[in-house]
Specification:
The protein is of the alpha+beta class. It is 25% helix and 33% strand. The protein starts with 8 loop residues before the first strand and ends in a 7-residue tail after the last strand.
Length: 267
């Protein structure tokens, strides 16, 4: 980021974690745009599909919530659960199966005198249109031995893929990936709608997960840190509606800059 572009941002905040820091810069939104969101409380009809604008809002909001988590990557494993047949490719069926999967995981970890907390994200495979689940499991102690055979017996709808080691940059990138806008989620014949039902919980975050320390930060200092250290950067997008033309506009509204523990950023 160039210093001369800093006037395009309105504020910054610092997220301090055990294994590094995150600077979040909020971009100034042009005056001719306004947030494209419904007014008041609207009854959710789950037989209808979630709109693309609602999908954008959901992953944008959850992206910031995930960035504020302070996970212990040494105690985390990453698992992907897929669906193998059309008859299982249903949002409710998938969530029920995942609930059973987590019951088995909790029961097994309890036997090992351990506890588990989780993040769950749902995606749609672009070519097949099948749902699949990504989950990050954080254990209170060292992760127990979870063989592929055991995991496969817990998940009955398809294949299981696991990554038993996640380092700090991988975990930050993974959390951002879970809330990245994915074109596969949009219906091929109606791009303004997604495959998710209205009110779908695309991202679930266990409330027991540890939160990082969050504080306001000087905007110019934040830009200087980014220029000097070349951190890993993720941009977040949001949908706004033009006040005059009524059209939807997708714009960057914030960026996340991830720094390792070797870079000391103080409030």
């Amino acid at each position: 980021m160039e210093i001369q572009k800093i006037d395009r941002f309105s504020k910054a905040k610092l997220i301090q974690k055990e294994n590094g820091s995150v600077l979040v810069l909020y971009k100034m939104i042009p005056a001719f745009l306004k947030a494209a969101k419904p007014c008041g409380r609207i009854a959710v009809n789950r037989s209808e599909n979630m709109r693309t604008s609602a999908y954008h809002r959901t992953i944008n909001r959850k992206g910031e919530s995930l960035a504020e988590l302070d996970l212990n990557q040494d105690n985390c494993i990453f698992i992907t659960l897929t669906i193998s047949h059309e008859k299982y490719n249903n949002y409710v069926t998938m969530l029920n199966a995942f609930g059973n999967f987590m019951q088995y995981i909790n029961r097994y970890t309890k036997e090992k005198n351990n506890q588990v907390r989780m993040i769950r994200g749902i995606e749609v495979q672009r070519k097949s249109g099948f749902f699949h689940i990504h989950t990050v499991l954080e254990f209170m102690d060292k992760p127990p031995t979870l063989s592929h055979k055991r995991l496969r017996s817990y998940w009955t709808l398809g294949a299981v893929h696991r990554n038993l080691k996640v380092d700090v940059y991988d975990i930050e990138g993974l959390l951002q990936y879970l809330t990245k806008f994915k074109a596969g989620s949009l219906k091929k014949d109606q791009k303004f709608l997604t495959y998710f039902p209205k009110g779908a919980q695309i991202i679930y975050i266990d409330k027991r997960l540890k939160k990082a320390k969050v504080s306001e930060y000087d905007l110019k200092s934040a830009a200087a840190h980014i220029e000097a250290n070349s951190p890993k950067i993720f941009s977040r997008y949001h949908i706004y509606r033009g006040k005059d033309d009524g059209k939807l506009h997708t714009v960057i509204d914030k960026i996340f800059a991830f720094f390792g523990s070797d870079i000391n950023i103080t409030p």
